[in-house]
Design a protein that fits this description.
517 residues; 10-stranded antiparallel β-sheet; 4-stranded antiparallel β-sheet; elongated
Length: 517
């Protein structure tokens, strides 16, 4: 309680709660003799996190493929080239490994920095690149920054050059405090982090986390013994801080990914408490549990993760979320279409036209007021084309319902299929529900088109579908397609269950065909 009170007083007064253990070290001037710096020199008493990446083992092509699989997005080709050029340049300059080092102080120090700076700028991470040719490393980093539109001054690059040709140099980016302390021969180091850093029983890349002693003491004072009854896991935050000495997550990246997590305890008794908490957490994570194996030895709890099936589950998550988003958006379009019919006595026109019949804006403009975009609709000059000077600004507005997460923000893949006999054929008077002799539930209204068919949402250009091979136009290289049926329902069309004849029957509204969904 006394420490808690001191922290609150420190925050209230805005005083800097300096680390008493570090003060004597921080005040020492850097040496002027031979540079004694090694990577361990950066692991000071206030370091809480280190990340080590073996640059020489990176398979950029395999990692790019994994990122695209997990995100569902194509990696920008120009960025891929820039990254490859950067990695090649770093290795040519003698960089084999890169390190990210993050510091944290006492809770009082964190609160003081938040109050003073409005953020944690004072404890930002430091990127450390051991190398042979620091000037070449700096040039490569600056070139990469310029290619990404960043100013080189924002990099905050420092260089620690070796005292002789055989020595190790360092290029540093970010927080200057660890860099200053690293040059001090008397710099005390975090044993838990240092031991894990030099250990040989880990995979290629590793992340090491361990709370500094002062931060640990603060959390023990502040954190509760129990979580609220509504929390799904019966754990003690205070006990966890007391039990866990260090966490090491190491990994091999594609093409042969692997993941191992080691949790090192202060005592053997702590292993069972942490193991019970992890087992309960895994039980709540469904299929992930079966891909994690736990073993214990001495004061270490090890989790070996079967990464391939786990990556498959993670890759499916964004795709599932995007699919659900599309289905919800199509349902909103369907509801807006029905409301439009109720108000005007007919469906939205495929496009607005001028007196001469020239297309001006798409049907998506017509239903804007019914998808909570009344202001955008009123801003349109409906007498001018969608891309006229008077409409360019409003046409560039992002409409959430029309976005699908993969096309450009002002484009949409929600298209009205135009084919002989389809709902949207021709530029004549808008159609009415009474004309749908095939039935509303048997007629496709809107389709989530392939990305190649994405268009500006206000563009009235028709999406022409081949009557001979509608599957090619509608499916493209996809196996499934989301479609809005005129009755307001949304269905998933599967290529494996579809034929050109069946799809053509679903696209027409008065063909007399019998369609089974």
């Amino acid at each position: 309680m006394i420490r808690h009170a001191v922290i609150l007083i420190t925050l209230a007064l805005g005083l800097h709660n300096a680390h008493s253990q570090d003060n004597s070290v921080q005040k020492k001037p850097p040496p002027t003799s031979v540079n004694p710096v090694s990577i361990e020199s950066f692991i000071g008493q206030d370091v809480c996190l280190t990340v080590e990446v073996d640059i020489t083992s990176l398979d950029l092509t395999a990692n790019r493929a994994l990122l695209e699989k997990l995100s569902g997005e194509k990696f920008p080709p120009e960025l891929a080239v820039s990254i490859r050029d950067l990695v090649d340049a770093l290795m040519q300059a003698g960089v084999e490994k890169g390190y990210l080092i993050a510091t944290v102080g006492s809770i009082g120090d964190i609160l003081w920095r938040l109050q003073l700076n409005g953020g944690l700028n004072g404890i930002s991470p430091l990127l450390v690149l051991p190398c042979k040719k620091p000037d070449q490393v700096q040039a490569a980093l600056e070139t990469f920054a310029q290619q990404q539109g960043q100013t080189t001054s924002s990099l905050k690059i420092q260089k620690l050059s070796a005292a002789n040709e055989d020595g190790q140099s360092f290029v540093l980016i970010g927080n200057s405090e660890p860099a200053k302390r690293a040059t001090q021969t008397a710099q005390p180091q975090r044993d838990a982090l240092k031991e894990a850093q030099i250990a040989k029983n880990h995979l290629t890349h590793k992340v090491i986390f361990s709370l500094p002693a002062e931060t640990r003491r603060d959390l023990i004072d502040l954190w509760p013994d129990k979580m609220p009854p509504t929390f799904p896991i019966a754990i003690s935050p205070r006990a966890m801080v007391q039990d866990i000495r260090c966490i090491v997550a190491s990994a091999d990246l594609p093409p042969e990914p692997a993941l191992q997590i080691q949790i090192k305890m202060f005592s053997k008794e702590a292993i069972q408490r942490v193991q019970d908490a992890i087992s309960t957490s895994l039980a709540l994570m469904g299929p992930i549990k079966q891909h994690v194996q736990m073993t214990t030895a001495d004061k270490i709890l090890t989790l070996d993760v079967a990464i391939e099936p786990l990556l498959a589950l993670l890759a499916a998550a964004p795709s599932t979320a995007r699919t659900q988003q599309k289905m919800n958006s199509l349902k909103q379009i369907g509801l807006a279409t029905h409301n439009y019919h109720a108000i005007h006595g007919h469906l939205p026109p495929r496009c607005f036209t001028d007196p001469a019949g020239k297309p001006l804006q798409s049907w998506r403009v017509a239903i804007l007021p019914l998808i909570e975009q009344q202001a955008v609709y009123e801003a349109f000059n409906l007498k001018e084309p969608w891309n006229a000077a008077s409409n360019q600004k409003v046409a560039a507005t992002q409409i959430p319902v029309y976005r699908n997460g993969k096309s450009e923000t002002t484009k949409t893949t929600f298209r009205a299929p135009v084919m002989k006999g389809s709902l949207w054929e021709g530029d004549g008077p808008p159609r009415q529900f009474g004309q749908m002799t095939d039935g509303l539930s048997n007629t496709i209204a809107v389709i989530d088109a392939p990305l190649s068919a994405a268009t500006a949402w206000a563009n009235p250009e028709p999406w022409l579908i081949s009557a001979e091979d509608p599957m090619s136009d509608i499916f493209g290289d996809r196996e499934t397609v989301a479609a809005l049926i005129l009755d307001g329902s949304v269905i998933t069309l599967k290529k494996s269950e579809m034929t050109n004849e069946k799809l053509k029957a679903m696209l027409t509204f008065a063909g007399g065909e019998q369609v089974e969904f």
